[in-house]
Amino acid sequence: MKYILTLLTTFLLAVFSANAQQSSLTFTPQWLPQAQFAGYYVALEKGFYTDEDLTVEIKHPSASVNATEMLKNNTADVISLFLVSAMKARNEKFKLVNIGQLSQHSALMFVTHKKSGIEKLNQLDGKRIGIWKSGFDEVPKALMQSNNYEVEWIPILSSINMFMIGGIDAMTVMWYNEYDQIINAGINPDELNTFRFADFGCDIPEDGLYCLESTYLQRKPDLEKFVQATMRGWKYAKENKEEALEIVLSEMKKAHVPTNLTHQKWMLECMLELMEPGTKNVKKGELAEIDFHKTRNMLKEGNYINSNISFNSFYKPVLK
User: Fold this and answer.
1) Are the beta carbons of 64 and 31 closer than 8 angstroms?
2) Contact predicate 59/275, CB 8 Å
3) What percent of the chain has pLDDT above 70?
């Protein structure tokens, strides 16, 4: 009996010791659950974070509190954020740093009905363009401003209704999201004209991973493990898309977010394509210095920022 108790005590101490050594980390995406964040859900579900001795909680933002605010009030350790949004925050003396750049390209585009006759970008001059109330307006406005086009910006929610009923001449959409929603609503692709920002010199990378500079200095090993497991999650999602989509739909169901498999499948394919560097001289998960400077210059010209943020102070990659 004494021998058994000794073994049990040893086992419990080992378990306690292992748990004590495992770090915890809270990650907040910049939006509600969807396939845009499939790699994180997969990494959590498949135990990739646990393999790195990390306990990770994925906590989505609410309608009233965004991801940046959650980083500020220390309810999140790492967040995902658009590059332009992160640079604006840094300009406002909020010391966040980029520890990994997942998206390598812009998914932003304008879309018009072909029957409108708007087939070229300059034909948007003087027109009414729908743009989200929730932000992400820097690149669309910079594109129009750089071409000296005067447009009327119409604030819209995430709905495509205004575009569908002809209340606006064009709509700002994400290739992986609202564009596909329009198609699913019964409009054929050949009934639309699309203007990909990437084709007009505004191929600005979007989703990146950010933490406080203090967190980077204090917890770099944990951050390295988090990014490593996350990249593994995206790799698994690419190689096992059906399983990844099941995991995504499960997360959306738990959060009571309505969706359908077809749309999430489209979004996953788009996100995987956007993560490919292509001709850029960087690896997956890295921020290209040329993209940083292009984005900074665009924001300065549009008067969104006024400081010369340096690449080395902003970008702190944790993967070797």
Assistant:
1) no
2) no
3) 92
pLDDT-derived band of residue 63, with 50, 70 and 90 as boundaries? low
For range 285-307, the mean pLDDT? 92
Structural domains for the chain: 23-105+205-314 (3.40.190.10), 108-200 (3.40.190.10)
Cα–Cα distances in Å, from 171 out to 45, 66, 102, 121, 265? 36, 23, 26, 13, 23
The DSSP result for 16-48, as a single string, is HHHHHH-EEEEEE-SSSSSGGGHHHHHHHHTTH
Q: How many angstroms separate the CA atoms of 220 and 319, rounded? A: 10
Paired tokens of 40:
């994180």
C-alpha closest to that of 46 among 231, 207, 317, 211:
231
Map residue 241 onto helix, strand or coil: helix
The C-alpha angle 112, 116, 122, rounded to 5 degrees, equals: 70
| Amino acid symbol at 196 | R
Phi, psi of 196 (to 5 degrees): -75, 125
Class of residue 93 by CB neighbours under 10 A (exposed 0-12, middle 13-18, buried 19+): exposed
Q: Is 139:197 a contact under the CB 8 Å cutoff?
A: yes
DSSP string, 64-120: SS-HHHHHHTTS-SEEEEEHHHHHHHHHTT--EEEEEE---S--EEEEEEGGGT--S
Whether the pTM exceeds 0.85: the reply is yes
Q: Strands 54-58 and 207-212: what pairing?
A: unpaired
Q: Are 285 and 102 in contact (CB under 8 A)?
A: yes
